[in-house]
Amino acid sequence: MAGAIEHVFLYRDPSVVARRARLRLACNLVSLALAAVVVHWLQHNLGDYPLRILNLAAINVILAVSLNLIYGFTGMFSLGHAGFMAVGAYVAALLTLPQATKDVIFLMAPLAWPFNVLSAPPIVAVVAGGIVAGLAAFLIGLPVLRLRGDYLGIATLGFAEIIRVVANNIPSITNGALGLKGIPNFANNLWWTWGWAAFTVWFIARLVGSVHGKALLAIREDEVAAEIMGVRLTYHKMISFVTGAVFAGIGGALLGSLITTIDPKTFGFMLTFNILIIVVAGGLGSITGSVITALLYTVLLEALRPIEAGWRLGPLAVPEIPGLRMVVFSLVLLVIILFYQRGLFGGREFSWDWLIRKLERAAAGTAATAGAVERRTGATADAGAESEAQATRPGGGWSSTAGRGTETGGRGGASKRAPKGT
Amino acid sequence: MRALAATDVLRLDHITMRFGGLLAVSDCNLAMARGELVGLIGPNGAGKTTVFNVITGVYKPTSGRVLFEGRDITGMRPDLVCGLGIARTFQNIRLMKSLSVVDNVLIGHRVHMRSSLGSAVLRLPGYVREENLLYEESLKLLDDLGLLKYKDTPAGSLPYGEQRRVEIARALATRPRILLLDEPAAGMNPYESQMLVKFIRDVLTRFNLTILLIEHDMSVIMEVCDRIMVLDHGETIAEGTAAEIQANPRVIEAYLGVGYKHAGNY
Ligand SMILES: Nc1ncnc2c1ncn2[C@@H]1O[C@H](COP(=O)(O)OP(=O)(O)OP(=O)(O)O)[C@@H](O)[C@H]1O
Ligand SMILES: [Mg+2]
């Protein structure tokens, strides 16, 4: 590929660019392989309870990264995630419920066409859940995406509530307030959940890391200027909103299968709120932040369960307080926001650049390599300004969204390569 | 008004813009030939920025027409106007502040992207090639304008004067045929303004442009403009060369009457 595009390069050394692309690919493949080994081991050695937590963590990764696309990368304050999840969960559940279960649970009204005859394998059901959620997002997006800021938040929140009310009132499809029970538990499997999480991270990192993705970032930064620079607002907002909703639907479908029972109350505002906490605490516009925070959040929330049960510490007796975990988390969030205003990761992403730089330095054994990369910028008259520019960027193994070649990587083998790099 | 010619790049035809009871622009006529640099001046609130907003499609004029290369673009969506070849900067700089300088410019170049979103996500060879092309073009543009050293710096952290130049670079990235500059010298010291004059002249010829320039800094206006148009309370009160404008009693009255302002608000 590098050979075909060589004549394009005026400012970068194509051989260096190509070599780095290869190194990145190698790093990603190695870490994916390692992740696969880890997943395989965990799947066979963990008990039911920890497995469930890890599956839930993966689902939270999917939900957080998809909300980050809408809110963190495109700047659209959407509170509709629980609504899209509900759509995905119901569609996938209805497609995977065994006929026998369908016959038993629909007490209020018989299951309506087409769900009374349709049935699909889990993978198709999950994809269908995502697609229908995306369609819902498209329909709701037509009127509401012209709204900005808080107004958009209220409108999407209203949409999520409408979905709940509708779910409560069409018993021939949703079984009303009774909900759906006995959903096949295919998502209680690390390969499933983390596989989808990896796909989500890959897809969204590729999207926001592309030139098209810059249009989304431009909208976040300044809608008016973006439009003047040729960004078609309705189209790009819709792309972001629908893509985020598709993955929210997929996350909802997996969640339904993991917990095996869904009803309208499952998809209340608290669900959206939890995801919002993860996205904001991890950093708006940081996929890495969303991935790591989703994992930490899910695991810590479980680890903190005992504090709600009531306990003694010397003379101090704490009674049983349901919801104490959320109090702790709200405090943690408060502290994070106070000390890291832009979330734990700001707009930064994980990248392999530090490793590649190290490898290159080791290979060349000289400091001259750094200058060779950029033919005209690096070691020439601009050297001073170049280091000044460097100083404004986060150091270490982190690249900023401000920098090029936003690289994203996630836990559990979700590491992905971004564009190709400088 | 100068007679309309077939070579006109931009033509404003009896443009009137009302905001409720406020007449922001009243019966504005303007014809710009290729390669011309026209100045648009007037006291605060005269309606200069509103003229830009009408041209770029931010506002649909109450009446009148905007013609670009003979084509009626009145009220056309701003992103489409941009695609046709009209670019602008803003009075209060509107860069994508947390994005790097090169990303800002790349956002301008993005308009010319042919590859689909799907091929971008899959990083198909066609997309990768185009991305490389546009990225190299962005670097080249920055290099041409002496901004390459800032390529990875977040645009918002640059000094004020440099942000103005980056905004011009971003506008140029859309490969415009006409460039609208809204008070580019605002907030600059005399030396910086002098450099800007050079910069604008340079850009005009190098990019084969036509420029419409709003400016409060008279030294800039008098030095670079072929022709000047003066607005006051939405009305065109004078049009002509720098010398003609300076001698025009209505212009003197408009400026002295409301208090001459050296630097624009921003
Ligand atoms: N969107 C709007 N709604 C209502 N009034 C507006 C709007 N935009 C501009 N105006 C009014 O139109 C008039 C002209 O404004 P404009 O911004 O065009 O002036 P200007 O010549 O650019 O002034 P300045 O030198 O201060 O930039 C002003 O009185 C302004 O308040
Ligand atoms: Mg103005």
Layout of helices and strands, plus pairs?
The complex is a heterodimer of chains A (422) and B (266).
Chain A: H1 14-45, H2 48-73, H3 81-96, H4 99-105, H5 122-144, H6 149-169, H7 171-174, H8 190-209, H9 211-221, H10 223-228, H11 233-259, H12 269-282, H13 287-303, E1 311-313, E2 316-318, H14 324-339, E3 348-350, H15 353-364, H16 369-373, H17 383-391, E4 398-400
Antiparallel strand pairs in A: 1-2, 3-4
Helix pairs in contact in A: 2-8, 2-11, 2-12, 2-13, 3-5, 3-6, 3-11, 5-11, 8-9, 8-11, 12-13
Chain B: E1 8-19, E2 22-33, E3 37-41, H1 48-55, E4 63-68, E5 71-72, H2 78-84, E6 86-88, H3 101-109, H4 117-121, H5 125-144, H6 160-173, E7 178-182, H7 190-206, E8 210-214, H8 218-224, E9 227-232, E10 235-240, H9 242-247, H10 249-258
Parallel strand pairs in B: 3-8, 3-9, 6-7, 7-8
Antiparallel strand pairs in B: 1-2, 1-4, 4-5, 9-10
The complex binds adenosine-5'-triphosphate (ATP) and magnesium ion (MG).
Residues 19, 22, 24, 42, 44-50, 91, 264-265 of chain B line the site of adenosine-5'-triphosphate (ATP).
How does this structure look, described?
The complex is a heterodimer of chains A (422) and B (266). Chain A starts with 13 loop residues before the first helix and ends in a 22-residue tail after the last strand. Chain A has 422 residues and is mainly α. Chain A is built from 17 helices and 4 strands. In chain A, 63% of the residues lie in helices and 3% in strands. In chain A, the strands form 2 sheets. Chain A has a two-stranded antiparallel sheet with strand order 1-2. Chain A has a two-stranded antiparallel sheet with strand order 3-4. The longest helix of chain A has 32 residues, at 14-45. Chain B is of the alpha/beta class and 266 residues long. Chain B folds into 2 domains: 35-62 and 71-85 and 176-266, Rossmann fold, CATH 3.40.50.300; 98-175, no CATH class. Chain B has helices spanning 48-55, 78-84, 101-109, 117-121, 125-144, 160-173, 190-206, 218-224, 242-247, 249-258; strands at residues 8-19, 22-33, 37-41, 63-68, 71-72, 86-88, 178-182, 210-214, 227-232, 235-240. In chain B, the strands form 2 sheets. Chain B has a 6-stranded mixed sheet with strand order 6-7-8-3-9-10, with helices on both faces. In chain B, α3 (101-109) packs across α5 and α5 (125-144) crosses α6. Classes of the chains: A mainly alpha (422), B alpha/beta (266). Chains A and B meet through α8, α9, α10 and α17 of A and α2, α3, α4 and α5 of B. The structure holds adenosine-5'-triphosphate (ATP) and magnesium ion. The site of magnesium ion has 3 residues of chain B, from α1.
